Amino acid sequence: MKIVKRALAGTMESSDIQIVVEAGEGIEIELKSSVEKQFGNQIRKVIRETLEKLGVEDVKVIAIDKGALDCTVQARVAAAAYRGAEIKENYNWEVIK
Amino acid sequence: MLGSQLIEKRIFLDDKRGKRELEEFLQTQDIRLDENAEYIMAIFNEDELIATGSLSNNTLRSIAVKPKYQGTSLLNKVISHLIKEAYQKGITHLFIYTKPKSVKSFTFLGFYEIARVKDVVLMENSPTEIQSYLNELSTKKVDGKNIASIVMNANPFTNGHKYLVEQAAKENDVVHLFVVSEEASIIPFDIRYELIKKGTKHLDNVILHKGGVYMVSSATFPSYFMKDANQAINVYAALDLTIFKRYIVPTLNINRRYVGEEPYCEVTKIYNETMKRILEGEDMEVRVIPRVESQGRAISASFVRRLIKEHELERIKDFVPSTTYEFFRSKEAEDLIKKIKSNTGRH
Questions:
Q1: In angstroms, rounded to a whole number, what is the distance separating the alpha carbons of residues B88 and B187?
Q2: Pair B172, B23 in one domain
């Protein structure tokens, strides 16, 4: 899956995460989190794994986390990636568990 | 207390009651209602307006949260709402004007400071955008002792503009000529750019650039494009020029900025005065070039547009280079001339 435009999913409200994806080289993640110390690495890992499952290889992610659970992170990453790739059907929701 | 009764609503300025309520709320926060706002949202706790924000092209404005509820997540709700709205319109590079004390809050929401002047800070929603712009710009860097710069809208390119560029080209090794790319003028960017390119073809040390979002754009200098132009114009002018000084000047090693003397437009006049104050220093000089006159009056693009509007296309010949004149006589310009004739705006 190829990211062709900057796209967004999620919000910066409590328990959510705002994900912005844009074209990049390799997977690059810029994370800002209210729980960075405790969960920063876990969130990065979930973002990366979700992207890998979706087959996104080149992307820059800007994530602003407000304490989202893993499943929320997965859902937001998938939605942003699909929007950024301009894919509008046959979604693979298996990436969220 | 805040709970599930929170309602997010769009507010329309032609709804008198809604508008008054919003104005009253903003007044308590010392914020002016932005009449240019294209999209305004507010959050209500039952019937009480407790937070608001608006979107005008690519800038978030007039953002306020009732003091009692500050520190709750209302600001996040407002900003998330506006960002989503902007993205849906395809606008993804966003700016925000805020006060120094709020910079931290917006940093948590993914905004990064570009520049500040007195009590106003301009931020953008990307950590890398300005750097990639500068990286791109630096590919056009040319070495020399005297490196000049000009920013012009050229709506359209006149003999006045041409004289300004020629002066700069004569007195410097290189001239970086930035064309305002905001589509707020009656003549579209592509045409303005093309006419400048044709009209400066004889000068081989002039490098043309697309002005982009960091130079006299609706983000950096909104006064130039607004109806109530004088509002906060000093601050906006200072911000725009601070960005120029801090980012553009060192990237291209610029040490002069040229500008045409401004006898007519109040906004441009203030901008030019501010330019001297902000830019001039040891390594940087501002040169104001007097306007060229023709037939006893200073040449201005607005006068040229007026002639076109008043069906006196032939007369523009005395005020514009032949390249501009030929363009306006061509078939290609027909639609544009119609547009100019029916235009009532400032630009």
A1: 27
A2: no
